[in-house]
Design brief:
The structure is a homodimer of 337-residue chains. The first copy, chain A, is of the alpha/beta class. In chain A, 44% of the residues lie in helices and 19% in strands. Chain A folds into two domains: 138 residues, 2-Layer Sandwich (Nucleotidyltransferase, domain 5); 170 residues, ATPase, nucleotide binding domain (Nucleotidyltransferase, domain 5). In chain A, helix 8 packs across helix 9 and helix 9 packs parallel to helix 10. In chain A, the strands form three sheets. In chain A, strands 3-2-1-4-7 form a five-stranded mixed sheet. The first copy, chain A, has a five-stranded mixed sheet with strand order 10-9-8-11-12, sandwiched between helices. A two-stranded antiparallel ribbon of chain A has the order 5-6. The first copy, chain A, is built from 13 helices and twelve strands. The interface between A and B is large, with 46 and 47 residues.
Chain lengths: 337, 337
C-alpha cells in the first residue's frame, strides 16, 4: 500500500542526514554523510542525490510529497540562507533551488526551529502535542527553538533564541564578549575551558593528568563519573549556570515544557539534578509549578523529525490549485518557456 | 461631527484612570481617581460610573464603541482576572460584568500587554507601527510586555514576560528568591535596599544623612544628581544589571525596539548611558546593530493608550452579525428573559 511521506534533511556543519518520514513520524529510510564542501553548491547537489537515493529505497508508491530542511544558520524572509559553517553560504536561495529540481514544496528553517518542532511532532518527542515549548540545545554552541501558541517565535530579523548570549553572571571577559556569557561557560568548549583554568590554578585534580592541551568536556564528564572532585565541581557549576538560563526562559516565555537537548545532554548525569533544581527554584514561582523541565530523548534525530514536521505543514498549506499551477509552471519551464 | 471613539481604563494597584480616546490616539476626556477598595466589586462599579461620566463629557455623538481595560495582574483564558493588589480579585469575570452593563465589546489585558500596545499605537509611542517590540516596565515591580509579529506573547498560562525574575548574577539571597534577581536589585525598593546596605557597610556617603529607615530610590537619584559618589555608584550598578537584562531580552526575542518605561524611567538620567552601553555590548552582536533601545515618552499614559488599542481591535473584530445578536441577547435579558 502506498504511504504518504515527506523528505527530511538535517544539514549540519560537518554531517548531513536525510530521511523519508511517514505521517506518524516513522523513518522509512535514512542516510548520513559528511557534508560535501568542495564547491558552494555542492551541498545542494548532495541533497538532490540523497533525495533520489532515498526515493529509490522506498519506491514510487511511497514517494515524498514535500521536503523540509534544517540548516545550521538563519533563513532570511526573502528565503535566502546564511550558514557560517558552510563555505560560501551567505545568501543561498535553498528552497527555490531544491523546488526547481524536486518539483514539490520545500521549506527551510533554522536547526533551532527544527529542534523544537521535532520535540512536538516525533512519537518520542518530549513535548509531543504541546503548543508552548522551549528547546534549549547545548553542544559546541547554544541556541533555543521557541514555540508559542503553536507558532515559531522568529524575531524581527530571524535571530530569536540566541540563548548562548544570555548573561547569567556579572563576569566580563574576552570569551564572554565573543561568544556570549552562557556559551562561554556551558557549551562543550566552555566546559573544557573551565577545566583548563582549574588545572592552571593548581586545582585540576584528575584533569591535570590529561593536560590542558588535550582536555575536553567529555574527559571531564568521565572523571566526574569516577568521583573526581574537581571534575564534579566543574559540572556542578555548569548545572547552576544552565539552571539559571532555564529559569530565565521559563520566566520570560512561560512554556509548558522546556526540553534540553544537543550534544551536552550526553553528560546530563553530571549536571541534570543541579540544573533542574536551580531552574525551578529561581524562575517565576507560579510558572515553576506548571512547567516541565525534561531531557530530549530524540538525540540526533530531533532536527530531522522537525524538518519532517515542517514538510508536512508545507504539504498541507499548498492548496491543490496552487500545486497545479506550480506543476504547470514547472512543465512550461522544462519545455523551454 | 460625530467621532468614533473607545473607552480606555487603566486599573492600577492604587489609582484608576479612564479616558475617551479617538482613532488617532487622542484623549478627548480623562479622569483619574483612587481605586475604590471598599468592596470586591467596588472597582467594577467605579469603572461603570467613570464610563457614564466620561460619556456625558464627550456627548452622544462621540459615544465609545468598545472598551479596553488594563489590569495589574493576569487575565486567564476563561476571561477571569487575578489582581493581587485589589482585595478579593482572584477570579473576577471583568469583561463579562462590564459588557453586561455597557453593551459594547470589552477586552481586558494585563498592564504589561497594555504597555507594549501603547508604545506601538500612541502618536508619541516609542515603537509606533512596529511589529516586534519588548516594553520593559520598571517601577515598584518589574514586568515586560512582548509583541512578536504583531501578536502579544502570552505564554501557556498568561505568565510570559515575568522579567523581574531574570537571573543576571549568581547572587542568592532571601530577596532574590522572593522577588526574583532583577526585581530584588533594580526595582524602586531594590535600589533603596542597595543604598541601605551601603549605609550599613559605612560607605553610604550622603545617603547616611537621610538614614536607612527613610531612604528611597528617589532620594538616591537626587543625591546622584548632586554628585554624591556613593549614590552615583548605586545607580551605575542598577544600570549594569538592567543593561544585562535588556541584552537578554534582545538575544532571546530579537525585537526591533526595546522600550524602557515605568516609574524608574524618571531617574533615567542616573543610569541610562550605563544601561544602553551594557545592553548593546552584551547582546547577540547582529541584533545589537539592528535593535533600538529607547526610553518611553508616554509616562503614565502607556497603559491607557494600550487599552485604547485593544478596544479598537475588539471593535474591528466584532462583526455586525455578532453585535446584533449580542444586542438582542442584552434586550432579552433586560426584558427578564
Amino acid at each position: 500500500m502506498a504511504t504518504s511521506t515527506v523528505l527530511a534533511i538535517d544539514l549540519g556543519g560537518t554531517k548531513i542526514c536525510a530521511a523519508i518520514v511517514d505521517a506518524s513520524g516513522k523513518l522509512l529510510a535514512r542516510k548520513t554523510a559528511p557534508v560535501d564542501k568542495r564547491a558552494k553548491l555542492a551541498p545542494v547537489k548532495q541533497m538532490l542525490a540523497l533525495a533520489d537515493e532515498l526515493a529509490s529505497y522506498v519506491g514510487k508508491a511511497n514517494r515524498y510529497c514535500a521536503v523540509g530542511v534544517a540548516i545550521p544558520g538563519l533563513v532570511r524572509r526573502d528565503g535566502t540562507v546564511w550558514a557560517p559553517n558552510i563555505p560560501g553560504w551567505d545568501k543561498i536561495p535553498l528552497a527555490r533551488l531544491l523546488e526547481k529540481e524536486l518539483r514539490v514544496p520545500v521549506v527551510v528553517e533554522s536547526d533551532r526551529a527544527a529542534a523544537v518542532l521535532g520535540e512536538v511532532f516525533a512519537p518520542k518527542g518530549a513535548a509531543r502535542g504541546k503548543s508552548d515549548v522551549v528547546a534549549l540545545i547545548v553542544g559546541t554552541g547554544i541556541g533555543a527553538g521557541i514555540l508559542t501558541e503553536n507558532r515559531l517565535l522568529r524575531g524581527a530579523h530571524e535571530l530569536s533564541g540566541c540563548a548562548g548570549w544570555m548573561a547569567v553572571t556579572l563576569d566580563d571577559s574576552p570569551e564572554v564578549r565573543q561568544l556570549g556569557c552562557l556559551e562561554a561557560y556551558t557549551a562543550g568548549p566552555g566546559i573544557a575551558r573551565t577545566g583548563k583554568a582549574e588545572i592552571k590554578s593548581g586545582c585540576g585534580g584528575g584533569m591535570a593528568n590529561i593536560g590542558a592541551d588535550k582536555l575536553s568536556s567529555h574527559d571531564i564528564a568521565e572523571l566526574a563519573r569516577k568521583g573526581d572532585k574537581a571534575a564534579i565541581e566543574v559540572y556542578r557549576r555548569t548545572g547552576t549556570l544552565l539552571g539559571l538560563a532555564v529559569a530565565n526562559l521559563i520566566s520570560l516565555f512561560d512554556p509548558e515544557v522546556v526540553v534540553f537537548g544537543g550534544g551536552l545532554s550526553g553528560a546530563a548525569d553530571c549536571f541534570w539534578s543541579e540544573l533542574k533544581q536551580t531552574a525551578l527554584e529561581r524562575c517565576q514561582p507560579i510558572s515553576a509549578k506548571k512547567v516541565k523541565v525534561v531531557l530530549s530523548k530524540l538525540g540526533n534525530d530531533a532536527n530531522l523529525l522537525g524538518a519532517a514536521k515542517m514538510a508536512w505543514e508545507a504539504a498541507q498549506q499548498t492548496k491543490p490549485a496552487a500545486r497545479a499551477r506550480s506543476k504547470k509552471q514547472v512543465k512550461a519551464r522544462a519545455a523551454g518557456a
